[in-house]
Amino acid sequence: MVAKSNLANNKFDTVSCSVGNWRYRETLPDKSFDIVVCLGNSLAHLSSREDLVNSLHSFYDILEDEGTLITDQRNYDGIMSGDVDGSTRNYCCTGLNTSCDLKVLSTSTVEIVYTTSGYGSESIMTHAWHVKEIHSALEEAGFVVKNIYGENGTPY
User: Fold this and answer.
1) For a surface tag, which of 28, 93, 116, 131 has the fewest beta carbons within 10 Å of its beta carbon?
2) DSSP character for 156?
3) 64, 32 in Cβ contact below 8 A?
4) DSSP, residue by residue, 18-61
């Protein structure tokens, strides 16, 4: 509950912060929000289009009519085409003694390997959602997509 603590410590008494499982609408608060932020390449942990659309629809349901959804996703289009090199480390903020390598395993799967000095390597498998797939799923969930940005804020 770091977010709630930070809000209280910085005297943001009018800002609400809630916890729920974004994959399941029934676990989310019934309040409406002005903004939902989904960071950390979270959508890539959903392996089916149905799960992706359902999760995005959960976000849509808890937003005000003019609310905003911000998602953070690796540039899988660039990774899969070879235009983005996973070895540049620009995707990972894990500390000075940690490296992050991306390995394309198939047309829809990327393995992310984190290696930390003194602790070895750990990996996670992610679904390589392409921009067109995300855009289509957002629209199916009810969103009007206004902006999609790529590397360092550049348009796709």
Assistant:
1) 93
2) -
3) yes
4) ----TT-GGGS-SS-EEEEEE-TTGGGG--SHHHHHHHHHHHHH
Which residues lie closer than 8 Å to 127 by C-beta, 6 or more apart?
A: 44, 45, 46, 47, 108, 109
Spell out the SS3 assignment of 119-147. CEEEEEEEECCCHHHHHHHHHHCCCCCCC
Those residues with Cβ within 8 angstroms of residue 114's Cβ, 6 or more apart along the chain or in another chain: 92, 94, 98, 99, 100, 121, 122, 123
Residue 46 DSSP class: -
CA 68 to chain CA centroid, Å, is 14
Structure tokens at 86: 């996973």
Contact criterion met (CB below 8 Å) for 126 and 44:
yes
pLDDT tens readout for residues 30-79 = 777 889 888 888 999 999 999 999 999 999 999 988 899 998 888 888 88
Q: Which residues 6+ apart lie within 8 Å of 79 measured at CB?
A: 86, 102, 104, 110, 128
Phi-psi region of 152 (alpha: psi -120 to 50; beta: other; left: phi over 0): left
Strands ordered across the beta sheet of 120-127: 98-104, 109-116, 120-127
Structure token digits, residue 50: 């149905």
Write down the pTM of the prediction. Answer: 0.80
